[in-house]
TrEMBL record:
It comes from Aurantiacibacter sediminis. It holds the Pfam family DUF3429. It comes from the Bacteria. This is DUF3429 domain-containing protein. InterPro entries: DUF3429. The chain crosses the membrane at residues 35-60, 72-92, 128-149.
């Protein structure tokens, strides 16, 4: 992580704080905070997961030449987080069990998302995985902790 730009490292780890705050509010805050913490935590996880898809789309679109062209599967992978995030919203809209299962799906997706990045060796900076892995594990774990509180 020594080669990771300082601003990327600082802002990246700061990005875990909202989800940690929601998990703490859900677990140890007053009972009246629970629903709000769950709803905000779901929204934050869905936004960040969608953001990851946007990063992959940007990497694919920025492929500079034939030798470093993005694989076709990356375009599909790039839209999946937004579609998955939207799907996790549907149970709330139709009155089914929510947000525990939805938060669990998002936690799994966020935690596994570095598997996509790992395959993008020619498209990502050399420091990328050193930042992505701990950020995804941190956000995935805090999202799962939130799911357990529901």
């Amino acid at each position: 992580m020594a080669h990771t730009p300082a601003l990327a490292r600082t802002l990246g780890f700061a990005g875990i704080l909202p989800q940690l705050a929601c998990a703490l509010a859900a677990w140890i805050g007053p009972e009246e905070w629970l629903w709000t913490a769950l709803a905000i935590g779901w929204a934050y996880a869905a936004l960040i997961f969608s953001f990851l898809g946007g990063l992959w789309w940007g990497m694919a679109a920025a492929s500079p030449d034939e030798a470093r062209r993005a694989p076709g599967w990356l375009w599909v992978a790039a839209v999946m987080p937004s579609l998955i995030a939207l799907a996790t919203y549907i149970p709330w809209v139709v009155g089914e069990t929510w947000p525990g299962p939805s938060l669990t799906f998002l936690a799994i997706g966020i935690t596994l998302s570095p598997l996509v990045d790992r395959r993008l060796v020619t498209l990502r900076p050399s420091w990328w995985m050193g930042l992505r892995v701990p950020l995804s594990l941190g956000l995935g774990a805090s999202t799962f902790a939130l799911a357990l509180a529901s």
